[in-house]
Amino acid sequence: MRRITTGSTWEPTIGYARAVVAPPFVFVSGTTGTDHATGTIPEGVVEQCALALKIIGAALDKAGAGFADVVKVTYVLPDRADFEPCWPLLAATFGANPPAAMMIEAGLIDPRHRIEIEVTARLPG
């Protein structure tokens, strides 16, 4: 088993890894659109979604997987009305390899967060 961290302030504060590689799976923790280098959070949900996907993509890459290997995704949004604006970006990200999915409406750890994304992938090969 291998753990992947990203420098998020939340990881050591709460005590979790961005991703855990437990072959044949990669479990990526719930990820928000927070810039880990600056601590800034974009205002718009689409921008937050794009940044969360970038962070997830980097974790998957470190694990030896990619978005085509994602088998399950969970989206958590405080306001379900914010989900639809993200659909084009999500469809483009998962393309011809859409995973099983679930969307939950719930509060997030910081009220500025408008989306959190968690994925499970299967290592290729």
TrEMBL record:
InterPro entries linked: RutC-like_sf, YjgF/YER057c/UK114
Pfam families hit by this protein: Ribonuc_L-PSP (PF01042)
Protein name: RidA family protein
Organism for this UniProt entry: Fuscovulum blasticum DSM 2131
